[in-house]
C-alpha cells in the first residue's frame, strides 16, 4: 500500500504491523525546508523495530520515502529512549494498540518526556517535562489470542472525578493553586472530587520545570473520560498561570463530558481498533463526535482490513441535558487472531 | 463333605427389639422410604477426604462434558451442502451421483462434470462433486467437503485411496463420512457376502468411528442402483447434521461452479499467452468475504480479488415453506459446467448456456478461410503502427511520403489512402481496421462499446463470407463472439452500481443541487481561485486552518473529507472542477445548522424546484449516512477521472499550484488530541446546564430514577410483618388495578396506568388486552422466579453460554433490515450468497487447460496469511509410510488452503530447550519441523506427501502434523565436534593444536570445556602464539600423546527458502496429475545414475587382532624387600650347568639284574591284571545286589500299602459303626 506525507504516520505503521501488509510512504515533508523524517519519527520506527522481529525498513537518503515491511510482533522486555520532541504518550499510544497481539507479554520501559502540551500524558515512574525530558514509564501488557466483541453503549452517569495536579522543579504551591481553580468549576456539578497534588523532587522530577493537571471522570458504568492540560515548555511561548491552567483543564473535562460517549476523544481510535480486531461478531460503541484523528483512523482501517463501520448519529432528546450529539459505531470484527502467540 | 447348614434367623417375638418393630409397623412404611433418615449412621460422613475426592470426581466428570461455547454464526440461509463422492476408479461414483440426482430431481444427467447443485428439500440444497483419483483433487475436496460418500468396491475390498482420503480428512478437520459398498452383486455365495460385509464394516469403523454409517448398494438394475436403496441413502443425506470445523468457520471459500474468461479478446489475439481476467461463480461458504481480499486457488496460486458481487440465487430454496413435499418446479438443478442450468442471470445480463465446450477452444477452429482475413487476424501490430512505419510514394521517382506528412487530411478516413485495399475488393473490411485505429486511440479509456462495435464488425464480416462458409459455422462464430464479447461489456456496465453506495450517490447529487440553490456564485468564484479566496475569506480560512474550527465534529470531518479528496489526487497539481466543488458542497450540506454560513442569495434556485423538493425530502431521510459519507468519502471513481484530466496544461507546462491545505494535511502533526470547540463557552450557565444530566447529581431516566426504583421495591417487597411487634405493613396499592386481583406484581406502575387508560378506548380488544396482561404477568412472575431460583445453579459455563447466545442474536439482528447492497459493505458478503468473483492476472494456462472435472476452490485468506515466513510445526511420519523422511528433502505440504513444495528441517527439542537438527525423522515419534512457507494460524493441521505425480509409494501420505509457531528467530543447531591433538604434555596441562586456525578463534572459545575420547575433561585456557590456533588447556588428568581432544559445539542451520506452490491446475488436460516439483536428492541421483562413493573409512574390513605382548612385571627392590616371603617373587635363577662332579653317573645293569627286573615287571603286570579283573567282578556283583535290594524294597512297599489299606478300612468301618451306634443312641435319646 502506498501513502503520501507523514500525516497519520503511527496509524499507518501500526495497522501495517497488525495486518501484515507492507507500506510505502512517499513525499514525507518533501516540500519542507527540512525534508524527511523527524527525529521523533525515526525514534518511533526504532521502537517498532525493537518490539518486532524480522521487520524490514528502508528509508531513502533524504528520508522522504519510507518502506516498511512488518515482521512478527515479539514483545518481551524492551527499553527505549524516546525522542524528546514528542512525549512518551506518542509512543505509548501505538504500543497500546500493538501490545495485546505480541508473542510474549510486553514489558516496556520508555524514557523521555512524560508530559507535554500536544500528546497525552502518562502516569509515571519519573516525571520529565518538555523540552529536556528525563522521565520514565513502565508499561506492561499481557497477550491475548483473540479479542472479545466490545459492547459499550451505555456511558452511564458520572459519579466521581479524580485528578492529579503535578509540579516539577517549580514551587509545590503551584499544584495547590491548580487544584483550587479546577475545583471551583467542577464543584458546581458533583461533590465527589479529589485531586491529588503530586510534587516530585530530585531525580524523579526530570530535567525541566513545569506543571499540569490531569482529570478523570468516572461513570457508574465504569467508563472513564479524561482531560489534561500541561504548562507550556520552558522558553517556548507565553508562560501560563496555574489558575488559568486549572480552569482550562476543568473546562476541557466539561467539553469531554459534553461530547460524551463511552470513550473519550483521545482513545476513540484505540477502542475502534479493538472492535475491528475482534472475532467475527458485532461490536458496538457509543462515541462522542469523531475527532479528525479518528476519522483518519477509520479510513485507514478500511484500507487495511476492509472493514467499514456503521455510523449512526444519536441526537440528544429535547428535554435531556446530556451534551451534544453522540455517534454509535457498529462493526463486524475481522476475525483477527494473534498469530504471534505460541501454542504448546 | 457336606455343607454345614447355617442356623436360621429367629425372629424375636418379644423384648425391646420386637416392640420397636411392632411400633414401626403400626406407624406405616414412612421411614423405609427415606433410608437416610432411618439409618443416619450409614450415610454419615465416614471420611472427609474421601467425600471431597468423590465430590471432585463427579465435578470433574461433569465439567469434562462441556465444550467451549462458541457463538453460533450459521447463516439463516445456508449454502448448499457439499457432498463429495470419492472412491477409487471404476467403483461407481458417477452412477451413484446420477442416481441420487435422479432421486431428488427426476432429471437425468449424462455427464457429471463439475459441481452439480440441486434442491433436495424444503430447507436443504446439495452440491455433488465427484472426486477423481488424483491426490490433488482429494486434498482440495477434503478441505471443502461437508459430507463424504466413500465408495468401496466390496468385491475387491479397501483400496489405498480410501485410507489416504480418510487421513487427509482427519488432518483438515473431519467432515461427515458415509461409506457405501458397491459391487455386492458379484458375490454368489451368501455367506461370503455377509462375512465380507462384516469385515469391511469393522475395518471402516476403526478408521472413522465405532458405528459409522455404511451403506450397501446391492446390485444394478439397468445400469442404475436400486431405487429403494438410493432413496434410503438420499434420506440419510437429507437429515444429516454437520459440525462446524475451525478452519472453515474462520475462512471464506467458494467452490466455483462456473468460470468465465473476461479477458479482452484483442489482448488474447495479440498475445495468446497474456494473463487472463476470469470471473468465477459459486456459493460463498465459511464466513464473510470482504471485497478486495486475497484468495488462494489451490493448484493455481495466490491472487487478489478485483471485484466481488452477489447475484440472484440460481438454485433458490422455495420461498414459502409449505407442509407438502417439493413440487417439480421447485426441484431445481444447477450445473453450469455440465451444461445444465439453462438460464443464467449475471449482474445485468442473461446468459443462455448451450451445452458445448469453451469459447476459446472453438475460436481456433472457426477461423475465416480467406487468407486475407486470416492474415489480418494474424497481424500482431495494429495498422496504425504499421502505417507509421510504412512509406508511400505518390509518383515514381519522388521521395516517399511519411505518415506524418499525410496525417492531417487522412486522419479521419485512413482507408481511402490505401491502395491495396482497393485491390482487395473488400471495402467494408476496412471498417475493422478503422475501428481498431479508434480503439488504439481510446485505449486508455478502455471503453466497452468499442469492443462491441468490433464484434459487430466481425459479424458483418461473416455475413459477407457466407457464400464461402457454411451456415453452421457462422452461427457458431456468432455464438462465440457473443460469448467472448458479452462479459467485458457487462463489466463496464456494472462498475457504476457496484462501487458507489446508492445513498452516497444520491447525496452527492443532492448536495450539488443544494449548492446550486444557495451558493452558486460563491462556488463559482472558488473555482477560479480557490485557495486564495480561502485564505482571504473568514469562514473558509478557518476551515482550512485545521481541526480547531467550527462545530466540533462535522466541520472537522469535512476538512478531512477535503483532504482525502486531495490526497487521492496524487501529484498535487490542478484540482479539477469536480473535486474543488466537492468539499464546498458538503460544507453547505451539513452546516445548515450552523449559523452565519448561508450568506449569498441564489439566482438559479428556481430551475427545477419540484425535483429539489423531493431531494430535500430524501436528504432529511438520509441524514445518517451523511456522517458515513464524511468518513468514507463517496467513491474513488470520480476522483480518478479528475486526476486523468489534470495532465498537462498547454501541452508543455504543468500547472503547479502550491495547494496549501493539502500539503499541510499530508505532513500534518500526528496527534490524537481533539481540540475543544471554540464556540462552547463554559463560563455561561446554559452550557453548564446542557451537561447537567451527565452527572449522578442530575436528572435520571424514568426507569432508573431512584424514586421509581424505590417505589417498585416497595411494591415487590412491600408486604412484611414486623415480627417483634407483630405489626403488618401493607404495600400501598394506590395505583393498582383491582380487577387483576390478588397481589399484583406489575413492575412498572406507569405501564399499568397506560393500559388502563387504553382499555376503555378500545373496547373491541378488551379480551385480548386482558389476555396479554395475564401473559405479561405470568412472564414477569416466571422471570422473577427464575431469577430467584436459577441464580444459585448458574455457573460460569451457563453465563458464558448465555453471553454467546446474546451475541449470536445481536449478530443476526444488527444488519437484518439493511439493504443487501449496503449490508455487504458493512459485513462483507454473507455465506450462502451466490457470488461472482473477478480475478485479474490469472495465468493463461488456467483458461486454456481448464478441465471442469477438477475442482476450483477459492479459499479466502485472513490478514497476513498472504505472507510467507518461517513456520515451526510438530510433525510425525505416518506410520503407514514405509520410509523415514530426510532433512532437506523437498516435501509437498497441504496446509490451510494451499498445496506447496518446501524444504523442511527436522529437529528435536533437547531438555535445555535447544533445537537439535535431525538428519531423519524419528520412526515412531513426533519431531519438530521448520519450513519456509505461507503464514498460517497456529493450530492448523497439515499433511505431507513426497510427490503428487503418479503413485510411487504404497501409502502416499508421508507425514502429518500441526503448526505450532510462526517465529523468524527460532534457531536449529547441529552438533559440531572440533578435534585437536596434544603436542606437548606437562602434568595436567597440555598444548593442543589442530583445533583452530587463528588466535582469534581460540579467543572466542576461551573457557570452553573440552574432553578427550578417553573421557578426561578439561578446559581451554589461553591461545598460544605459535603455531596459530594452538592453545593451552588444562585437564583433570595427564594426557597421553595418543589422546584425541575434542570440543563439542553447536552450529546454527539455516532453513532454505523454498516455497513452490503446486500448480497442478495449470497442467494440460489429462496431465494434471503429473506435476513434479523439485526432486529429492535420492530421486536426482537415481535419475542421473549417480552412485554415492562411500567413504573409505566407513567400509567394513576384516578385523585383524594384534597379538599383545605384555612386559614382565617389575617390582622395585624396596618393595620386594618389604613384601612378606610368601609374596616375594621367587627368583629362581636359571640353573647353570651342573658341574661334572655333581652329575650322577648312568646305571648299567648286570645281565642277572636285568633278568630279575624283567621278571618283577612281568609279575607286577600280572598282579595288576588280576586286581583289575577282581574289581570288575566285584562291581558286577554289587550291581546285582542293588537290583535285588530294590526289588525287595518295592515288594515291601506294596505290602505295606496293602496293609495300611486294610487297617484304614478297618478303622473306617469301625468309625462308621461307631457313628451308627451313636446315631442310634441319639435317636434312642430322642
UniProtKB/TrEMBL annotation, chain A:
Residues of the signal peptide: none
CDD domains assigned to the protein according to its UniProt record, in alphabetical order: RNA_Cyclase_Class_I (cd00875)
Family annotation (PROSITE patterns): RTC (PS01287)
Main localization category: nucleus
GO terms, molecular function: RNA endonuclease activity
Cellular compartments annotated: Nucleus, Nucleolus
UniProt KW keywords: Nucleus, Ribosome biogenesis
RNA 3'-terminal phosphate cyclase insert domain residues: 153-257
Coiled-coil stretches: none
Protein name: RNA terminal phosphate cyclase-like 1
Source organism of this protein record: Cyprinus carpio
From TrEMBL, chain B:
One GO cellular component term: nucleoplasm
Location (main, coarse): nucleus
BP terms from Gene Ontology: endonucleolytic cleavage of tricistronic rRNA transcript (SSU-rRNA, 5.8S rRNA, LSU-rRNA); maturation of SSU-rRNA from tricistronic rRNA transcript (SSU-rRNA, 5.8S rRNA, LSU-rRNA)
UniProt feature, compositional bias: Basic and acidic residues: 25-37, 408-433, 1178-1205
GO molecular function: ATP binding; GTP binding; GTPase activity; U3 snoRNA binding
Keyword tags: ATP-binding, GTP-binding, Hydrolase, Nucleotide-binding, Nucleus, Phosphoprotein, Ribosome biogenesis
Compositional bias (Acidic residues): 434-470, 505-538, 553-571, 586-595, 742-759
PROSITE patterns the record matches: G_BMS1
Subcellular localization, as worded in the UniProt entry: Nucleus, Nucleolus
Sequence ranges assigned to domain Bms1-type G in this UniProt record: 78-243
One Pfam family matching this protein: AARP2CN
Bias-annotated ranges (Basic residues): 1-24
SUPFAM superfamilies given in the database record: P-loop containing nucleoside triphosphate hydrolases
Annotated stretches, region: Disordered: 1-45, 403-595, 718-770, 1122-1144, 1178-1230
Family classification: Belongs to the TRAFAC class translation factor GTPase superfamily. Bms1-like GTPase family. BMS1 subfamily.
Protein name: BMS1 ribosome biogenesis factor
Encoding gene, per UniProt annotation: LOC109110392
